[in-house]
Amino acid sequence: xxxxxxxxxxxxxxxxxxxxxxxxxxxxxxxxxxxxxxxxxxxxxxxxxxxxxxxxxxxxxxxxxxxxxxxxxxxxxxxxxxxxxxxxxxxxxxxxxxxxxxxxxxxxxxxxxxxxxxxxxxxxxxxxxxxxxxxxxxxxxxxxxxxxxxxxxxxxxxxxxxxxxxxxxxxxxxxxxxxxxxxxxxxxxxxxxxxxxxxxxxxxxxxxxxxxxxxxxxxxxxxxxxxxxxxxxxxxxxxxxxxxxxxxxxxxxxxxxxxxxxxxxxxxxxxxxxxxxxxxxxxxxxxxxxxxxxxxxxxx
Amino acid sequence: xxxxxxxxxxxxxxxxxxxxxxxxxxxxxxxxxxxxxxxxxxxxxxxxxxxxxxxxxxxxxxxxxxxxxxxxxxxxxxxxxxxxxxxxxxxxxxxxxxxxxxxxxxxxxxxxxxxxxxxxxxxxxxxxxxxxxxxxxxxxxxxxxxxxxxxxxxxxxxxxxxxxxxxxxxxxxxxxxxxxxxxxxxxxxxxxxxxxxxxxxxxxxxxxxxxxxxxxxxxxxxxxxxxxxxxxxxxxxxxxxxxxxxxxxxxxxxxxxxxxxxxxxxxxxxxxxxxxxxxxxxxxxxxxxxxxxxxxxxxxxxxxxxxxxxxxxxxxxxxx
Amino acid sequence: xxxxxxxxxxxxxxxxxxxxxxxxxxxxxxxxxxxxxxxxxxxxxxxxxxxxxxxxxxxxxxxxxxxxxxxxxxxxxxxxxxxxxxxxxxxxxxxxxxxxxxxxxxxxxxxxxxxxxxxxxxxxxxxxxxxxxxxxxxxxxxxxxxxxxxxxxxxxxxxxxxxxxxxxxxxxxxxxxxxxxxxxxxxxxxxxxxxxxxxxxxxxxxxxxxxxxxxxxxxxxxxxxxxxxxxxxxxxxxxxxxxxxxxxx
Lengths: 300, 320, 249
Fold this sequence. Notes:
- The structure holds three protein chains of three kinds.
- By secondary structure, chain A is mainly α.
- Chain A contains twelve helices and two strands; from the N terminus they run ααααβαβααααααα.
- In chain A, strands 1-2 form a two-stranded antiparallel sheet.
- The mean pLDDT of chain A is 88.
- In chain C, helix 4 (119-135) crosses helix 5.
- Chains A and B meet through helix 4, helix 10 and helix 12 of A and helix 7, helix 12 and helix 14 of B.
């Protein structure tokens, strides 16, 4: 039964924030890449997969600190390599070809990881300092009695907020960001202005991958580390992008939180929570096809 | 667009396919194939031929077609368990149910461009997948799947071994012929026009949306028939009949074989199933990795797949 | 008799007024040119007529029937065809297939579930398409893929596609754009030979306009500023003012 007590509501809010955080991080990379390059990256879930496997391996071998620094860096480099080595050859090819090649890449990455690490779940040990619980009732006096929340999940939420803020700062406060935003609105114009599109595209792809890397480092312990996780997260993340509006970063954040909340608040009913994402997608599609914050005319 | 040919000339491909298919039990073991796998190949031939009408001809890439396969499969299983072991009513009901769902999904997903369509079909496929595992557990058997069915019967014949193979082969031949007819019809023309220039088609007086929906439903019907026949072949339905794995496999088969040719995807299906079940004995459990690499190579270097490779070779031969 | 009656049509894109209370009557069977400086709203007006854009205000009547709120394909079925600035054809299909499509559209309407129609049944329509192709001088390219044609041939193919449906009104959006002199002459000849079809031509090339038009309307900043026979428009002070030297007379 749906519990309306202030405690329960608060807990569900937190869980929603946490679930939404991972969606936001993955959707952010997806929509950034799509909005700038026009590429639908079906391999994005696989990038997250690479991140969590790298993170757990480095964590076990050298410690979390190294994982924190190395994983996003490696993912950034991987994104650059992917764009230069594969994606750039598909800019002028039909959209279906782009989807096919990234889908193929996703399968290959997933299978390679499965071959190396096996198909079973690998436990990702949370570092000491991140372990434990937070006494929520000490921070929020309106809560009744003893209310606790896992520390690591709060850290994940904070990391997401910081990452989103950093991305927005990059886009709105730097000249690089200005060019990217202009390119998201009118890619043709950028070419006329003589801007080196190639380098920008490469960096944006790297950036999207880097964000997936951050998601992997902090999300690994939460989402588990197994080959299925990549696609498992990609589907709702795609829907988050669609609901928020393809190419809209604000939309990705808004929709990610919305979906996280929706899943959290329907968790008591397994049937509803499984399909709530799809129900919301259908409603948005019918009522506002361009998405919550999507630009009009984009794929309408 | 030659119309002065005889029935045999016009349907060369179908006759050739019929000859190869019906003699399969004879030659398949020679290359390491086993009985049962040939039946599966026939079933997937049906699946991919319909899928090619949507992908190769109309240009729409669906990642959720396993849903129609799975829904039909579960319906067939339930019909066997609850209604009768006769395969005819089971298949008919299964195809009707699955195709009806396809109409709804089609209306929701075809409104926008191909990119939206691919994402949404992936999502809806996964939706049915989750529903089968959780919400509809009572009917689907959840993670364990649907079992406990009687032996399927066709007019007093048990659908096992050779009987089920020849039935599948027969259905595959018929459905291939049907697809060929569609290809030659005005509807086939409009499908290809949609892929070429949908806007121009609309300005030429054609309601492209309706043709897209028609194609979507036809391809779903093919998938549904394949799903129903899968249960006739093997009385078991698992939740993996619905997810993106199977949808993705169909995409791989079609692209590797050569989209837009009808024959290509069938070759792709045969190749992939052979690879997965026969060659994997030598290659091991990582057959999907190798197939994934082959797939990427095809998309990057030879988008027309096996059929393109064949025609290039033919051209080279002719030069000499 | 006015076959096309455009009445008080207005359309704004955000703050930009693309069309402001445009009134235009096109007489049946005439060739009517629409000229004006860049950004005047000519293409926008054509897009309204084909159903691609919806105006904020006003009405459009085609042969007495309302044209707004009608799907592009239904508009075509009513008898309006459009020739695009860059020839819009079906690239990966043969010339014959390209022209067969409108022939089927004419017979079957905007949708028909004839998946099993036999090749024999289709024969007469294909033959009609072949005739159309020959009439436009593309006989030897019948089975060539459309994307391998020259630009001039693509334009002729597009013309064939439009004409196969026997339109009553033909809209042409800068049909000679990017063409060499001899190709332009051929296009003028072709258009002049199409008697009985009402033509609305948007053009920048004044040579083409004065070779073809029986009546000219001048659009500037979304409004009709002058209208009349060619010799009335030539040297019209308002027109010269609007162009400010852009005219290629």
